[in-house]
Amino acid sequence: MTNRPRSHEIAALAVSAVSQEWIKSGAAVEEIRNDYGEDLLVQTSWEGEMDDCRIWVQVKGRETVKRNRKGELPALRVPTGHASRWANTADTVVIAIWDISQGKGWYALPQEQINPFSLMISQTDSVGIYFHPDHAFDAAAARRLTWLARTRHVARQLEHARTQQRNFKDLNNSEGAQAAHGVAIAAAFSFLMKIGLFVDDAIPPPAFDSMVRAAYVNIEDADYFSTPETRFDGAIHLSILAHMDSIEPELGVPQTLWGELVGAVTHLYLTHYGTIENWWAAGPRTGP
After folding, report:
1. What are the strands of the beta sheet with 92-99, ordered from one edge?
2. Which of the pair, 36 or 142, is modelled with greater confidence?
3. What is the pTM of this model?
4. What is the pLDDT of residue 225?
5. Burial of 134 (0-12, 13-18, 19+ CB in 10 A)
6. N or C: which end of the chain has fewer CB within 10 A?
7. pLDDT at residue 272 tops 80
8. pLDDT tens-digit profile of 63-111?
9. CA distance 242 to 249
């Protein structure tokens, strides 16, 4: 009689449980049969539109995840080859450990823990990945990780495009520089569309405009925000931060993406109104 090892059952239960949390967050999940270090390929979407980035997930099931006396979760040792690939991939990688008996898990982002150079010069066969007790893995965490993957993906696109633009400028290749600039603009405005700040009439919606107007009035730092231009710039910054926080609280936005979003929204306003004075004189927009 052929017996199924308990370890196989635990692994299957863990993969199934983690998959369900991703599915609850709105993602499509595919289990990987050829195991090269990942168990799941997660295809995320936003309002029915598939994202152009993907998430790879390794799942480790445990009968019981035991903490030490300090309340710390056990570290996970992964082969150096896997760690190196994760550190260098453009995709987001998530490692989840799942406690079968308690029906809950935790996640870690290996790319935040692995230094590619240190790994390259090390002589070790494995690398430790650490899990923070506060990083519980559930559908809410999956949604947060999805937005993290989205923002990082767009930031990488922008960094690459802007680097190309600078290189072409150094070579006096204006056509190449303009093409690279276009790629960056497309990436920024595509993200604005995804978060609802670039709509059919090519101007931020009334609800966002109300936030900009409120911030424009309430900014009180006379030393820095002493001109309409600096006040408007500050209002755009604060309003984008508030808008992103309404989508995924305290997510944070990569600096490159942040600057591009502020520039793109400012461009929308000035293209539509011409000047800050005209925008203010036009009064609040109506609608949601």
Report:
1. 28-31, 40-46, 49-62, 92-99, 104-108, 136-137
2. 142
3. 0.90
4. 80
5. exposed
6. N
7. yes
8. 999 999 998 999 999 999 899 999 999 999 999 999 999 999 999 999 9
9. 9
| The one-letter amino acid at 271 | T
Looking at residue 48, what is its pLDDT? 82
Q: How far does CA 89 lie from the centroid of its chain?
A: 15
Q: Which amino acid is at 204?
A: P
Residue ranges of alpha helices (H) inside the chain are: 6-24, 80-88, 116-121, 139-170, 174-194, 206-218, 228-247, 255-273, 276-282
Tokens 């936005």 belong to residue: 253
Residue type, 231: R
Confidence category of residue 4, pLDDT binned at 50, 70, 90: confident
Burial class (CB in 10 A: 0-12, 13-18, 19+), 118: exposed
Nearest to 61 by CA among 39, 86, 80: 39
How many alpha carbons fall within 13 Å on the CB side of residue 82?
21
The three-class DSSP label of residue 29 is strand
How many Å apart are CA 208 and CA 214, to the nearest integer? Answer: 10
Q: Is 174 left (phi over 0), alpha (psi -120 to 50) or beta?
A: alpha
* Cα maximum dimension of the chain: 83
Q: Label residue 5 by pLDDT band (50, 70, 90).
A: confident
In 3D, which of 139, 149, 134 has the Cα closest to residue 53?
Answer: 149
Mean pLDDT of 160-180: 96
d(CA 236, CA 160): 25
Place of tokens 């996970």: 76
Coil/strand/helix, residue 107 = strand
Residue bearing tokens 């011409």: 274
Residue appearing with tokens 């449980």? 17
